[in-house]
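From the pipeline queue, job 12 of 40. The input is one protein chain; the requested action is below.

Action: predict structure.
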Amino acid sequence: MTTGCKTTTVFLTILCALLLTILGLVQEWPTWAWATLVVLLAGVPAAAFKIATTRRGSVPVDFEEQHTAAPIERREHRVSHVALPSQWADYDVLFSATVRWYPLEAYGDEPVVNPAGLAVETVLDRARAITERREPGRASLVQHELSGALSRMRPDPTGQLQVMAENVTLTLHEHDQERLDKLAEVRKDKAVWEHQRKYEQSKREYLGEDVLKDTGSAVVWWLAKNDDHIEKTVSDLGLLAQLTAAANDTDVPERLREFMPRPHGERPSPEVVDGPPRSFEREPTAADHFEAFLTGMGFTGNDVRRGMLAKQIADIIKTQDRHETAEELLRRFDPPASYTAADDAADDTPGF
């Protein structure tokens, strides 16, 4: 009998006894009536309890024990610094995580397994499938990718467990991280060096193949650099001629030599057309050497042999792509029939 039933029965018994006692006192019952009342009050609780027990029946199992379900048992295991391969050989990443699992419904014919080992193996396989396709230098980014991929419960290959991982971390060995930092710095320096090299190469091509291709190109370029100041360009003509000749490994044309700068206080020596070789205070040119040769051979003055030899030598020099030297020989030693000194001066005057 439950506690509630017992309490109700005692309460009813006391209430009945109280009512009958009041009634007996009012009616002035005889002595035998009071004796009968005591017997009845003693038997009422037992009769009430028997009737209540018959009505309710027996309760063989406690209600709470019968309807309380046992919670699903979940297990976990911590793995730390497990080396997993990355996309680069010999650069492993270190994997740490908390592996969680719970068993699925087991069948009688299945073998007994170690659930912790099976769950850890499953998580490591899932993690390795990702890390081996990622660069080691992106370990922090791959860590978040693994956290998302391993956060879902999935069955293991045997179908006996549901497995996931939490608190995932992914790091590199300290020495490997230092090597990667150095490699990144070298790659950046190399990229800067390659950029500078290409810039310098492009600049050389521009100067050599365009600006300093000949004196005329250099003059046009210098005019553009000096905002079309013709006077300054004319004063720098000798320097431009020397610069162009040096860039092309040739001699300065004869017509431009009078513009070449001389040391302070120096004056050009007078030239002698006929007679002993000229005295040059500058470096002699091929035409100067040829004139010395003719003079040494005794071909002086208006000797026609001078022009014949100059013409033959000029033709030979042209085959060697030395056209400027050939033109200088022809102009000096094989002039046209109408040649005059004024024509020579006009040819040597720059066209400005």
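Job complete. The mean pLDDT is 75.
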